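INTERNAL AUDIT FORM
Audit reference: QA-55
Scope: verify that the stored structure record matches its stored sequence.
Auditor: D.O.
Record contents follow.
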Amino acid sequence: MSGFEENEVSKNANGGTEISKRSLQSMLPTELLNECQIISSRIRELQENKIRVLTCHDLAEDPELNHLRDANSRNRFHKIVFVSNWQLDEFVTKLGITQDETISVIENPIKPIELVPKSKEQINLIYFSTPQRGLEILVPVFEELSKKYDNVHLDVYSSFLIYGWKEMDEQFNPLYDRIKNHPKMTYHGYAPQEQITEALKKAHILAYPCIWKETSCRTLMESMSAGLVCVHPNFGALPETSGGLTSMYQYVDDKNKHAAAFFQNLEHAISVVNEERIQNYLKFVKTFADMRYNIDKISQQWQYMLTDLKNRYPTEDSRKIPGKVFVYKTS
């Protein structure tokens, strides 16, 4: 296979990584992709006759990427791509990666979301990420806020089915039941990208008390593009992804204190979201996200990089893996 590879994990998944790579695959020239083997984080088998690109979407702590500590492992690739500068800094600090000409940072792409008029009566909040990233904080906070505000509603699109891992949802069933049984919350489970896009057009606020170190955040990118007030902590790569333009608060490890900070910021967002000055500001935020993460721009960056690699390594002989044997270890 040429271009962006699938493996036993990704082939059944429809997360941000998979959406990004499949979108790029559809936009890049086939003849260029035929020269390349592009691997997303998990290495299975390398092709010596291809230009080998490793794209890192996961954390430096991920066992699948621990091999990057070894220069011999890194030397098997003509380019290693990270999705944020924060992520790259983590790999430099924790795995000792050397920053040289084989390293690039190319952000994940999105397709801009059409901005349409939103309801002035009901304020719609949305959470659309896997449950372990902060749903346990959001639900009790929203339960309290819904007692104070009659015109709020929360839509939750969250399930490990997005990765084909149905069994992992079982531990969150009590939380899902709280959502299902609440009159101002709707649990949608897993939904395809098209349905999420339509929901974002109607939503006013992204409620995302994230407790997971995001290396990049498609949830945040799309919410900014759709004109939402985005309420989230300054955790992981979220400050970089947001450009500092969102309703961002200080992250704390203590979940009770986190919930208190999130409550305060979410309540403020509810109280001001429909003000004209806020709506005008959100149009600016949308422009920022649409320009920075636009798939047309990101695909061009990929095309320029792959074309340069093809010029540097024009023959199969020039692409061979260096002779020193690398032994894969997970720890």
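Auditor finding: record pair retrieved intact. The chain has a mean pLDDT of 94.
Action required: none
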